[in-house]
Amino acid sequence: MQDAKPRRKQAERRAETRRALLGAARKLIVAKGYAETGTPEIVKDADVTRGALYHHFSDKADLMRALVHQEAAAVASEINADTSTDQSPLDAFMAGAKAYFSAMSAPGRARILLLEGPAVLGLGEMAEIDRETGGATLLEGLRHAAAQGAIGDIPLEPLADLLSSAFDRAALAIANGGDSEAYEQATKKLLAGILKA
Amino acid sequence: MQDAKPRRKQAERRAETRRALLGAARKLIVAKGYAETGTPEIVKDADVTRGALYHHFSDKADLMRALVHQEAAAVASEINADTSTDQSPLDAFMAGAKAYFSAMSAPGRARILLLEGPAVLGLGEMAEIDRETGGATLLEGLRHAAAQGAIGDIPLEPLADLLSSAFDRAALAIANGGDSEAYEQATKKLLAGILKA
DNA sequence: AATTAACATACAGGCTGCATGTATGCAAGA
DNA sequence: TCTTGCATACATGCAGCCTGTATGTTAATT
């Protein structure tokens, strides 16, 4: 009974507008891509004006940035949800990979985070967002495995980088209707090979 | 002595204009990115008019397409140049990877083929260009290794896909000043792991 | 000479970002 | 409580740029 209908607070109104903009932007950008989606179309779908958009976001790319943050946070949240503990290193990595693939299968998410996002914001900013949001989970896993001697004595950052890229590719393929079973096998092959020697 | 000079005039002029356009586009797109480079700027740098550009290319993306084709062809050519024969599978793969990294280190090439190209043309068309140009060298290598029992019984296309993505990431990192030694080590680790069991 | 290729020029439409206008919520004093 | 002043949350209009196309012009080819 806190807020009746006549009295609509500013914060509430603001949040609602923002949600409408992000929702419309997500829908259109997922369907047609960032460059092909104009701000007039976005605000029309969100049922606000361009003035509202530029009041909330500094420019069109800033709206995309907010969208990317939102999706990245969702991924992090979903992955942290099913964090299973103490297994073999390979099983742990595979569990993480599957959780990532699953989170990335949300409709449109792979396109936002793996295609349009990097194109608009650049790889550098995307990496930074990953760092803030998901953190370097993969690298930590590698460090843990390496500490137990499960990996040879090689620099881990590049290896984590390459693996991360491969995971992204697999997630994109699966999200686009690829054979998830086959891609999971290939992922396991990569991971098993690393952890063996 | 087939064609004297009078007969070659038009074609020569045409080729010159096209070269100028591609050169200017390459320079500007490498420096500032595709979206931030307008056609007025390109034709100004190439010292022609926008009419010439739209006479040669159907639209701005088509110019980008030609640029991508040009770079992809250059990569294929450089890689085929140093094709060394019969070595161990791992050495063969590593030789190919190093040749790829080297070819991708040409200034601006990684940005064109790995960042702007996919953003403008989409992953599908980029894959098609790769297929036409470089061919599925990596996949063939895997098939060869698999035929000798060097890889387990798993689908090879996804594996080649993931490896290709990892190679691209390594090439991009190296081209951007990353530690090539470290990335080559990581690449070798990935490959060795796969070829072992 | 006629045709056609290779451009050059001009124009229409759309989009982005900003500058300015307006209404509503909010906070504080009388 | 009321109202007065200010900030917030938008709405509207405009200027500049960019893309793609249509039309005009020059020079080579036939």
TrEMBL record, chains A, B:
Check the record and name the PROSITE patterns matching this protein. HTH_TETR_2
The Gene Ontology terms for molecular function here are: DNA-binding transcription factor activity; transcription cis-regulatory region binding
Q: Which Pfam families does the UniProt entry name for this protein?
A: TetR_C_41 (PF21351), TetR_N (PF00440)
Query: What InterPro entries does the database record attribute to this sequence?
Result: Homeodomain-like_sf, HTH-type_TetR-like_transc_reg, HTH_TetR, Rv0078-like_C
Give the HTH tetR-type domain ranges: 15-75
The record's SUPFAM superfamilies line, in alphabetical order, gives: Homeodomain-like (SSF46689)
Q: Which UniProt keywords apply?
A: DNA-binding, Transcription, Transcription regulation
Q: Where are the transmembrane segments?
A: none
Q: Would you tell me the protein name for this molecule?
A: HTH-type transcriptional repressor BepR
| Originating organism | Roseibium album
